[in-house]
Amino acid sequence: MAKLLVEPTEKGLWCESACVHVDPWRPVEAAVVTHGHADHATPGCGRYIASPETASILRIRYGIKAPIDELAPGEFRDVGSARVSLHPAGHILGSTQVRIEASGSVTVVTGDYKTDPDPTCTPFECVECDALLTESTFGLPAFKWPSDADVFDAVNRWWRGNVEQGMNSVVFAYSLGKAQRVLAGVDASIGPILVHGAVDNMLAPYHEAGIGLPETRKALVEAAKESAGRALIIAPPSAAGTPWMRKFTPCSTAFASGWMAVRGTRRWRAVDRGFVISDHADWDGLLDTVQRSGAKFVGVTHGYTRQFSRYLRDELGIDAEPVATRYSGEGESESEDEQVPSKQVPASGGAS
Amino acid sequence: MKRFSRLVTELDSTTKSSAKQAALASYFREADPADGAWAVAIFTGRRLKRVVPYKELRALASEASGLPEWLVRECHSAVGDLSETISLILPRPQKGDDAPERTLTDIFEQRIRPMQRTDTSGKARILRESWSELDADERYVFHKLISGNFRIGVQKRSVVRALAEAFEVDPGVMAHRLSGRFEPTPEAFDALKAPEGEDPGSDAARPYPFYLASPIETLLGTGASSTDTVPVETIEAQLGPAWGWIAEWKWDGIRAQLIRRDGLGSDSIHRAMLWSRGEEEIAESFPEILSAASELPHGTVLDGEIVAFEHGSPLPFQALQRRLQRKQREALLFQDVPVVFMAYDVLEHEGEDLRERPLSERLEVLNRLLDRAQSDLLRRSEPVEHSTWEELERARSESRERNVEGLMLKLADSPYRVGRVRGDWWKWKVEPYTLDAVMVGAQLGHGRRASLFTDYTFALWDRDPQDEAAALVPIAKAYSGLTNQEIKSVDKFVRDHTVARHGPTRTVEPEMVFELAFEGIQESSRHKSGLALRFPRMARIRSDKTPEQADTMATARALLEYHRSPPGLSR
Fold first, then answer.
1. Could you tell me which residues are beta bridge partners of residue B433?
2. Does residue A260 share a domain with residue A154?
3. Residue B178 to residue B24: CA distance in whole angstroms
4. Distant-in-sequence, close-in-space partners of B332: CB < 8 Å, separation ≥ 6
5. Is B451 in contact with A342 (Cβ distance < 8 A)?
6. Which residue of A has its CA nearest to B498?
7. Of A252, A262, A272, the CB nearest to B79
8. Residue B316 has what pLDDT?
9. CA-angle at B529, arms to B524 and B531, nearest 5°
10. Which of A73, A177, B176, B260 could form a disulfide with B296 if both were Cys (CB 3.0 to 4.6 A apart)?
11. If you write DSSP's letter for every residue of A29-77 in order, what string do you get?
């Protein structure tokens, strides 16, 4: 993997020249963390480098006490013999890509990213580089996202329709990132909004960052009673089918995820509605990023790695190959991130 | 087409069957009779022909989307449904406002029918034209129609109920009207709207809706498995005294309705008709039964089972299967595999619908009919005499020796109901055979399970597993029997323990043991193990067992010997 300035090891993506791991999956001495989802942020490291918002999530969510070097996006830091900087990834609040410059070559590790606009985080910024390590969660042309306006129009219509029938509306969305994006997108004048405890816990970093979100209440029995038949409830997918849901009957259920673009996964989830709201880039977003980066070599991780790298090689003539990381979902016990379909069924992940 | 595609989207936007039924009812109420007829045909599973083979469809989609074919195949395998895949990858429609609006009927008459009559290039042309006229949702529906596979998660039962609701007819009556043949014509649709009792121009071949028995294990509550034993005490407590019930052997054959009515035809074979439970016309396969039935009086409908039968006892089901396979329908085979119609109910006598009469009364009519017919091929499924549940349990334990599947229990004074209504008919099957086998391979599922490993290959040891040379021999594939929760855990196991990949299939480390349940076992030259299991499914995950504690081929062969000639049965 001489083409990239990082290489996968037992513990994570190791960068020799900077002597740090990027998004390690085991505790290491020094970690650069792209964002606060569990499969990218590992507690127990000696020290961290992260954006200020991610730093705040690391402290609130994982209780990390170790020193965190807060590096504002766009600022450079000399680390070992390398220059490291962070650049907005547009995935969730605080998410960044990592740019590493060493011995005259530039590598960008995208982390998770999306190119579509999202009011809850800084928009993705394409960074030129020699070598790119990109994710490919939705690296197939079957995945093309509808516009936010269309999707939230559908969400609002569904919610309003349910209110007319005296039903609550429950949206399952990952508690960090997706839940807040749904909050920011819905028309709060339709009715009261309640949130599951796991979602409520993750609102603080957003308030801290000054992101405008509608007023919400914790979805306790009392709140459920007061807003019965009108409420929009936002809960992590792990809450589906649990006794916690009982206080909202009768309700219509929905799931917010890029996977909802496919009927089969929607039916497997056994929800009434699937809203295509993804925090990852779709096929066009991935291709656009690869091409605009100008990278001569592209490593592909997380998702449809084999298919996406083959397309880059065979059809676009870009040197590309899959890079095995733990972000590909296998062998993980807890993750709130969007995973390959098999893992996004509510396993043990979700509300902590 | 817009309206129909909106209906499909509505059906897809809810998991509640009441909401699906309401959406269907409102469609049928508003539908133009021609469109309504097509919709009924589609939703009741009248077989659509595949107009364009998958391969051609994929190639054309590849061309239209500018994507290489291998990538279209990858998308197909991720999405799990070709119709949907293609609607996802095609460029968004450039449909102008002047594009003609076609009805569902137009789609069949102006698009699908011409496609059936033309060659590959003609089909491609029509397909491209259609793509340019249809939006993404309509394209999905259109692909479903031309690929001959329109399963979209709507049960026939909901369709029957929706039609009943829309036209204010009793659901049982509607089920009857929809039984048998249905030509998608406006007249056929209008006939469904007729008020009760005014059935216009009833088809002489029309069967009655079958009444289906419930598994007795469901007396144990939800979550009971077909391998659970139901104690006689439970049966007695819930079904009451045994004398109120008529018991019969549960034949291992093909459930069928035998219809003898004038107006069907004049020669001996065509005066009668046979329908299978899936409402397929199976008359052609069993001409001797039709001949025998031609002697029955006009206006007779019998419910029963076609059973391979020789020297006074039934043959294994496999024999019968050969009769259904088209290629081998020669006279020789008819002699080779003799069959009988084992009648157990009469639904119509002298043209009168008897279904509301008590079973005991219907059986008297049946006995008289069969006595008069005097045919070896039309036999009465004799009741199993008993006075207590214990006696029935003993009788049931002889099922294997008799080559039957167990017992049927029918309430003596019950009417003949429509569909699977719990309460009056129970099937009390003999417990299935079981083997503990090791999972050695897995394959991605289909449809909504396309993203999960749901189809597994199981193996048995070829010798004592303690022996160092012991190897696992694949014996069966199974994909049913697990809960969704269990599927998730097995899927994770497969991903974490893959040792080799071959396309969609994976070889996994032989670690998990499953109890396989199956109905029979026979020799097979097509299987590496030399054995084939009938209806294998997973009864439970044996997490308490290590792979070394799984069964051996010797155990399976012993079952084969037993299955072939159970003790106490002389042939």
1. B518
2. yes
3. 16
4. none
5. yes
6. A330
7. A262
8. 77
9. 35
10. B260
11. SEEE-S-SSTTT--TT-SEEEE-HHHHHHHHHHH---S-EEE--TT-EE
Chain A CB contacts of B447 under 8 Å are: 264, 267
User: A115 and A40, same structural domain?
Assistant: yes
Tokens of A313: 């090689």
pLDDT along chain B (571 residues), means of 10: 92 86 96 95 82 90 95 88 92 70 92 91 93 91 87 84 95 90 92 82 84 90 74 93 95 93 78 87 87 92 95 82 62 75 97 96 97 94 94 91 91 94 92 90 82 92 84 92 88 86 82 90 83 89 86 88 54 33
- B287 and B405 fall within a common domain: yes
Q: Are A261 and B84 an interchain contact pair (Cβ–Cβ within 8 Å)? A: no
Q: Are the beta carbons of B84 and A345 separated by less than 8 Å?
A: no
CA distance A57 to chain B (A): 29
Residues of B in contact with A342 (CB under 8 A): 451-453, 491-492, 495
| A299 part of a folded domain | yes
Give how far A63 is from chain B: nearest CA, Å.
Answer: 29
- Burial track A110-121 (b if 16+ CB lie within 10 A, e otherwise): bbbbbbbebebb
B452 contacts in chain A (CB < 8 Å): 268, 341-342, 345
Per the structure, the complete domain to which residue B456 belongs is given by 433-564
* CB pair distance less than 8 Å for A342 and B153: no
- Judgement on whether residues A200 and A271 belong to the same structural domain of the protein: yes
Q: CA-CA distance, B550 to B571, in Å (whole number)?
A: 34
pTM recorded for the entire structure = 0.77
Q: What is the pLDDT of residues A277-303, one digit of tens each?
A: 999 999 999 999 999 999 999 999 988
Note whether A272 contacts B13, CB cutoff 8 Å.
Answer: yes
Question: Hey, are the CB atoms on A267 and B448 less than 8 Å from each other?
Answer: yes
**Residue A63 belongs to domain spanning:** 7-143+279-349
Given phi > 0 = left and psi -120 to 50 = alpha, else beta, which region is B265?
left
Q: How far apart are CA B433 and CA B443, in angstroms?
A: 25
Cα A5 to Cα B24: distance, rounded to the nearest angstrom: 59
Q: Is the reported ipTM for this assembly greater than 0.95? A: no
* Element housing B520 (H / E): strand B520-523
